Amino acid sequence: MVVDALPPRPVLEALATRAGALALRHFHHVAAERKPDRTLVTRADREVEAMLVAELADLMPNAGIVGEEGAARAGSSGDRIVLDPIDGTAAFVAGLPTWCICIGVLRGDVPIAGVVHVPCAGETYTALDGEAWWNGTRLPGLGTVADGGGDRFIVSHAKAHLRYELAYRGKIRAFGSTAYHVALVARGAAEAAIVGRAHLWDLVAPGAVLHAVGGRYVYAGGAPVDLAALGDGQRAPADVVAGSPERLRELLPLLTVRA
Q1: Do 133 and 180 share a domain, yes or no?
Q2: φ/ψ (deg, to 5) at 133
Q3: Are 165 and 102 in a shared domain?
Q4: What residues are paired with 33 via a beta bridge?
Q5: What is the pTM of this model?
Q6: Considering all CA atoms of the chain, what is the largest pairwise distance in Å, rounded to the nearest integer?
Q7: What is the pLDDT of residues 178-205, one digit of tens each?
């Protein structure tokens, strides 16, 4: 078994930036379609995925590939490149600026590398070799930096209020992108993220950043998330929550399923 060397951080970030530039050419000028699962897809999603697949196949020729829009390649190394060409397509279609380009690498059930690029905000979150960066600045471990004094908040998928009663005393924000939500947790801006019944491609790239700063994914009931078990493309069997172990211990008891 030949395992590919991971591309250097500047190479991954440059690739994500080029993909973002491609998507921006369609932003505000694209029509949406409904996939069989009723989620949205656009020409931009498909073009970005095709571009990423072509370049990553050369950079990591032995890795498998799985993408949200149907890209699939069996690999021989045990690593899988996991792509979400535009995470937050509904936000993209609505003209909102919080959609992301996501490139992740999964080894077994561990996300070992990832880039989350937010073109409209000029933000890039990257993880490689157990370290994480935000726009080239090393991210510290969660809980190691003093609170900056702003309002406490968590981020959530748009329908969490229909599923849960949430006794959280801070603010709850929704930006329309799972990857951006998780990146905000990894950055230490949001205390946690309720990301819903996500797919593998929603979780791998931001998960690499989250893991590098000491965070983790769990299900709302507290069980750890096995990303390898989501490799068939199905949604997670329950809502996924992202945060540091300390914040998750505080938040999970506050989630009460609505009757």
Answers
A1: no
A2: -135, 150
A3: no
A4: 41
A5: 0.96
A6: 51
A7: 999 999 999 999 999 999 999 999 999 9
